Amino acid sequence: MDWYQLVDTTNAPLWLISLLTLFAVGIPFFVLFILGLKMLINNLKSIGTPAKIALFVVWICAIVGLTIFGIRQATETAFEGEFQTEKVIDVRSGDTLTIQMVSNEHYEYNSRRRGRLDIEYNENDEKIIYSSDIRLIVRSTNDSLGRVLVEKRAEGSGYDSAKSRAQAIDYEYTFDGSTLGLNAYLTTAIENKYRDQEVEVIVYLPIGTVLYADDNTYSFHRNDSYYRDILDNGDEEHYLLIEDGQTRCLDCPGRESTFEPQDDKVIYKRNEDGNFERISAEDEAWLRGENNVEVVIDSVQTNATEVIDTIINNNN
Fold first, then answer.
1. Strand 134-141 to strand 198-206: parallel, antiparallel, or no bridges (unpaired)?
2. How far apart are CA 231 and CA 137, in angstroms?
């Protein structure tokens, strides 16, 4: 009954829908059964004209009733509405940001996008709709700060009702300065019913940022080219330098990275926390100045966990 009420938009009682379906499907099979008996038994008596007329009228009424309920069901999902929220996060060029999906053990232990719908009970023992239909998209931006755009979507009989259902979706994320924790699920009150609710999270990162995507983000950003997602599957657990409309892996095995001291290059170093940071303008100017300093970026290809370090050697 919970599942039926979740997808039903007609508010018709289940017994009525079941009865109409029984008549619409059962009467044709009954007629075929009678015709088959007549072919086998020559002297089989007819059910009578009044019975035939009654069955035909009941069948027509059942078909009409199911058609009306079907139209009402379809019109409830005719429009799609969305509700957006956007927030600036303190991520700048040269910073290292870790993105990971966060699951709620009250509902599910593993963070994985399945797109399915479940009926769960929240902490207050209230029935809610639970879904893992979350899409993650990473894009570059020329802005000095990063931002997170959350688009909630749902369907309805009109744009206003669809937008209202989208706004009723509960979705949260956290940011502690270096780690962006995105909920791997969405919830909404069961009164909102199933209207293809989904959430799309777009993370805009400034060019020059270093991104580290946790392995549990894999199923959430399996996107085609339409979404302009610069985080490709297989780039998880690697340090990715955000460039204009693309990423460059800094520690992928089998890829050599070199640095040439040109004006359009940026130098990064690994700090004590293991994150990348851009060196100061004074240091960069000194490296490219009159000190004849050689800058080499080296990577250990035999160990994929090793991160490219900046090694500075002078004449001394």
1. parallel
2. 7
Helix then strand count (H, E) for the chain reads 5, 17
Asked whether 201 and 208 are in contact (CB, 8 A), the reply is: no
Task: Name 204's bridge partners.
Answer: 139, 147
What are the tokens at 151?
Answer: 């688009």
161-223-240-202 Cα dihedral, nearest 10 degrees: -10
In the chain, the amino acid numbered 257 is: S
Tokens of 208: 């020059």
Indicate the pLDDT class of residue 311, thresholds 50, 70 and 90: very low
C-alpha pair distances (Å), 27 with each of 32, 37, 38, 47, 52: 9, 15, 17, 13, 10
72, 7 contact by CB (below 8 A): no
AA identity, residue 258? T
Band the pLDDT of 270: cuts 50, 70, 90. low
For 242, other C-beta atoms within 10 Å of its C-beta total 26
Q: Higher-confidence residue: 147 or 316?
A: 147
Q: Write down the pLDDT at residue 302.
A: 27
Q: What is the mean pLDDT of residues 17-30?
A: 91
Q: 240 and 233 in contact (C-beta within 8 Å)?
A: no
Q: Which of 107, 205, 87 is nearest to 151 (CA)?
A: 87
DSSP assignment letter at 304 = T
Does residue 238 register a pLDDT over 80? yes
Q: Among 145, 143, 120, which residue's Cα sits nearest to residue 131? A: 120
Secondary structure of residue 83 in the 3-state scheme: strand
The reported pLDDT for the residue numbered 1 is 63
Instruction: Map 109-140 to HEC letters.
Output: CCCCCCCCEEEEECCCCCEEEEECCEEEEEEE
- Look up tokens 């302009």; give the residue: 228
